[in-house]
Amino acid sequence: MVAVSRRRALVLVLLLAALRRRSRRRSRWWVHPLNQRRAQQGDFYRLVAELGLDPQRHLQYFRMTAEQMDELLSLIGPELTRQSTNYRAAIEPKQRLAVGLRYLASGGSLVSLASSYRLGHSTVANSVHMVCAAIEKIMMDRILPIPTEDMWKEVAKGFWKKWNFPNCLGAIGGKHVTIQAPPLSRSQSFNYKKTFSRVLLALVDADCRFLVIQVGDFGRTSGGGVFAGSHLGRGMEDGTLHVPPCTSLPGAAHLGDVPYAMVGDTAFPLKTYLMRPYPRQNLNHQKRVFNYRLSRARMVVENAFGILASRWRIFHKNINLHPQHVDTLVVAACILHNFLVNPTDNQRMLNEAEQLGLQMAPVGNMGGNRPSTAAWNIRESFSTFFSSAEGSVSWQDRMV
Q: At 127, phi and psi to the nearest 5?
């Protein structure tokens, strides 16, 4: 009996020793050896700390100032906070934010970020997802509120003052956001550029700020098709978006009341609430003037996309994330665009985009479009106004 008891005790001791060795192996590899010197060699503790002393380089690296980054952290920091465990300390909210912003700003890979920040690949991916989701959750209603009647009127004032287009609710456009081919991807994501993409539809005010965005349509969908199925398109069609009632154009009451309308290119349909150019064939002078004035106002949305892509270089890469995460990333980037955009800096960002050839692919045309007589008549009213004494501008004849 004594021998049996000793053998049982010996087996128990050996079992406990094996469990201790296994536990040590697990804890030793819970943080990879290359990442155990994160505080000494990781970019967050070395480079990012130094960038705080150089405002210009901080702006180039994160595409925002240190003060703007701190303000952003104060808003979304609680959403990035996680509890430490017995095995490892939680990543600080500011480091998660730094990783997320650098991913947007550089367009680099998750693997390269993991190496430079001395973090695990899954930690970097989770940080990017957390930052984008937190921005959408916390800042969406504040930065991209649902437009009210007063907001629409302010937008229209801005377009008349800056771009000489009255009764304008904004400039609308769409761009492709290229992605890696998702698993079991279907042909709907394959666009005319022979790449896989998601579509970003946006309505923009006179200062290049996003008013309404929609993300997530398949890449092969046309601009008009995306618009028709969007909340914006359905709301405009149903009259449920608090658009102000028709009013006369400035100084031209004799032309009658004219609806407020958006401006878009030929990818969009002609509607009573959406003006597009005249077809290019056999245009008289008045119609060429209208096309010029509409194009001048519509370029605001192209400028907004240019600034977005100039700031966030991720839009010039094939984003290797799940499509659902891509949609969240695009929404977050648009929110940050509004958070950061400054009319005094817009031209600098546009010049940078032009120098580097940073352009997003436009969505394709809708195809056939049979506008109503009312839509034709409203476009004629705008056209007549732009060639009248009340609505013309001194340089328009030289431009057409």
A: -65, -45
